[in-house]
Amino acid sequence: MKTQYKFAFVAVPLAIIAFALSRVIWPDPAGMAGPSSSLIPHFIFLGALESLSFGLGVAFLIFGWSRVVAALPENNALATASFVAIAWMLISWWPHDNMHRVNGMEDFAGLLRIEYIFHFTLMISAFIVVLYLWKSLGNRS
């Protein structure tokens, strides 16, 4: 079976499971105001996209590593860090958005935890990928 089919067979079911479990793992807080009915489809779309991103990230971890290893002449720490960073950039959106959704409006300590767990690490991940790409492109000239 081709890798892209294996990738899809992992990513799509995981996306469906993640989407279905979002409000089981992170139930809506009692008494918290919800969005207007006109906004709900937009939030559902984002939830589905974040769940798909989660599934793609897990599939990338499973099937991408062998390609990374095969493409490198030797063990490259920056390539490994980039691989992990890309996986994190895909996987993190599902728990990230759900944690924002259930964090209390005045829970600034919770908000700060989210900022450091997700926003900070996503910025570091982007820096790692930029550095890897910059060095890779620099080696070609």
How would you portray this structure in words?
The protein is globular, with a radius of gyration of 18 Å. Helix 1 (3-25) packs across helix 2, helix 2 (40-71) packs antiparallel against helix 3 (77-91) and helix 3 (77-91) crosses helix 5. The chain has 141 residues and is mainly α. It has one domain. The model has no long low-confidence stretch (mean pLDDT 92). 79% of the residues lie in helices and 0% in strands. It has helices at residues 3-25, 40-71, 77-91, 93-102, 108-138. The protein starts with a helix and ends with a helix.
User: How much helix, percentage-wise, in residues?
Assistant: over 70%
Low-confidence stretches: none
Overall mean confidence score, pLDDT: 92
Number of domains: 1
Helical region count?
A: 5
The number of E-state strands comes to 0
Structural class: mainly alpha
**Major pleated sheet:** none
Distance between the termini: 38 Å
Radius of gyration: 18 Å
- Principal-axis shape: globular
What is the H/E string? HHHHH
**What percentage of the residues does DSSP assign to strands (E)?**
under 5%
